[in-house]
């Protein structure tokens, strides 16, 4: 039986959408609460400032953490 990623829940009790966050210790589903006080177009940059890198800047559903990206970079570095 092939491995499949866990399904993302739709929304929590307060109607906050869930995002899939990939970290070095696994895949997590987090309810994402956003602040639109500076405009909806600033949400992606707020996530980057929080060291969460969205897979898409238009419809944010998947996030990569900075430690995971560091680990990916280290695994793909050529060693002498």
Overall mean pLDDT: 87
Helix share, percent: 10-25%
Instruction: Tell me the fraction of residues in β-strands, as a range.
Output: 15-25%
Number of strands: 4
Order of helices and strands: EEHEEH
Multimeric state:
single chain
* Physical arrangement of strands within the biggest beta sheet: 2-1-4-3
Number of helices, counting only DSSP H or I runs of 4 residues or more = 2
Q: Specify the biggest β-sheet.
A: 4 strands, mixed
pLDDT < 50 stretches: none
Q: Helix- and strand-based class?
A: alpha+beta
Verbal overview:
This protein is an alpha+beta fold and 80 residues long. The chain is built from 2 helices and 4 strands; from the N terminus they run ββαββα. It has helices at residues 43-49, 66-75; strands at residues 18-23, 26-31, 52-54, 62-65. A 4-stranded mixed beta sheet has the order 2-1-4-3. Strand 1 and strand 2 (26-31) form a beta hairpin. The model has no long low-confidence stretch (mean pLDDT 87).
Secondary structure elements and pairings:
Elements: E1 18-23, E2 26-31, H1 43-49, E3 52-54, E4 62-65, H2 66-75
Parallel strand pairs: 1-4
Antiparallel strand pairs: 1-2, 3-4
Keywords:
4-stranded mixed beta sheet, alpha+beta, 80 residues, 21% helix, 24% strand, 4 strands
């Amino acid at each position: 039986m092939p491995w499949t990623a866990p399904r993302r829940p739709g929304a929590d009790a307060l109607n906050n959408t869930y995002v899939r966050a990939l970290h070095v210790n696994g895949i997590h589903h987090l309810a994402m609460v956003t602040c639109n006080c500076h405009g909806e177009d600033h949400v992606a940059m707020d996530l980057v400032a929080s060291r969460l890198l969205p897979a898409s800047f238009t419809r944010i559903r998947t996030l990569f953490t900075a430690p995971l990206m560091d680990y990916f970079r280290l695994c793909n570095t050529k060693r002498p």
